[in-house]
Give the backbone structure.
Amino acid sequence: MTHGIGWMRVVFLSLLFGLLASCGGGGGGSTGSSGASGGGTTPTPTPAPFNDIPQTDAEAARFLTQATFGPTSSEIARLRHIGYSRWLDEQMDPARTPATLLLPHIHQMTVNDTLDYRERRNYWLWKTVGASDQLRMRMGFALSEIFVVSDRDYNNKNFERITHYQDMLGQGAFGSYRSLLEQVTLHPAMGTYLSHLANQKAVTYKNAQGLQVSVVPDENYAREVMQLFSIGLVERNPDFSPVLDANGATKATYDQSVIAAMARVFTGWTWAGNTDANYWAWAGHDNDYRAMECHPKFHDDQAKLIFRGITIAGTSDCKVTLQQTLDALATHPNVAPFISRQLIQRFVTSNPSPAYIGRVSKAWTDSNGDLGKVLRAILLDVEARVPPAASDAGFGKMREPLLQLTALWRAFDAKYLPATNGTYMFRFSNSWDFTTTLMQDSLRAPSVFNFFEPDYRLPAAGGIQGIYAPEMQLYNEASFGSIFNQQLDAGWNNFATTAPTANTPAPVMDINPLLTLANNNDHAGMVAKLDVLLFYGTLSPDSRRVMVDMLDKLKAANRPADERVRSLVQLAVSSPEFVVQR
């Protein structure tokens, strides 16, 4: 059963596409909660209030599915004891829950010359499983999918820089959006990725052949900081619905002239410590992660007319120009709904209702872009906490493949011991680059548009747009088989009754809780345990019946208890009810 996945792949995809189609992906029916964000017209009824203390293990597990890298039995019990608000307080308090940082681990390695990106990615992935600052790491992960840089354009000599960038996102997870936007802008990882490092004002000169050459500022970051990191392409109301002109058409947030003006803003910044004479120099900066520094000689000192008719004063001081521009971006009315909606998609649902986005946007505006308060508003919103009605088929999201893997590891208390030299370079199939199998990896997107886009919609019949399903961009029949097989190599093939030893090739999961039930032939109990940890109590009666029936048949065929455990987990993780988070 472990390797014969052909039948399961077909069944999974047919069920998954059918489930998502029923959520508004095909046929033209209402999308329930999607509203302006998802293309539907049916308003979402206001759910009943919820208690701050989860009333069941399933309620606690559902919250932890949204807010962490996966529920654990111990965290479920703790959340039920202290409640949502206190849990969030603790997670956002750096004194009680210090931030997990990756760079100190890299620096303490004595084998730096042989380290590569796999060490950063594997160390981060393992910390998502065991670190206490689950919310901070989950928010840092979400931010890395908005403020995208990728190690695809790096070499092994400069991966400390991107490691520092990843730490920076985590440290800013609950802070000011405006402050984080400035740190992103001036970080050399972003400066090299979107090519505004060593950007210069327009110049004209004659080359060695006597030909006149004109150089204009690079527009790459100028475009993406607006399109992807702040205001988006069209004007938005607080609920993310588009602002329309007198003819009912959308209104663009900027045009090419604004891009050109913004490109002039981002001139004059280069490596920390450079002089004017070596403004463009690269040598010696392989692992330099200090913020870029201003060189007035290379900065465009003329006034710049940017979005909303705002004029940035002419000055040779690129610090002043940058501050004015970032202030204008951070206070643009689009920022609250544009970023809030993406964060809701990363934690709760791909198709948030306009009302949900509006409430989170208000939290953003009221707090002046305090990301911690915004995240609290997202997770404690009544639409997040009260499970959707069966008729609200548009609510939910697909779990990203990385989050599927971490949920599996955390559910079964996975243990891992690094190599004797302290490295965390996993040695199971494809662990050097999960983008080849899981279709994503930490800070390794194929482009600045991430592994999937927030506006990706499912194909629908009759020319009608389906619901938003960003993560579905990762899936087709081939990629499902690849993701499934990678979970096999990293997951249920590594169940064990004892703790791992040093140099273990992969995290080892504790089989004992399920094995005890299997030895007692308590198949219903096995399914019930998985229902809480992997499905937060949402398994349908039909799914329960299928799982118990499979276990009964395996027992009747005299299959051993450990095989029944692995078969059950394999079936559970490959089910649409696990992949589609509601």
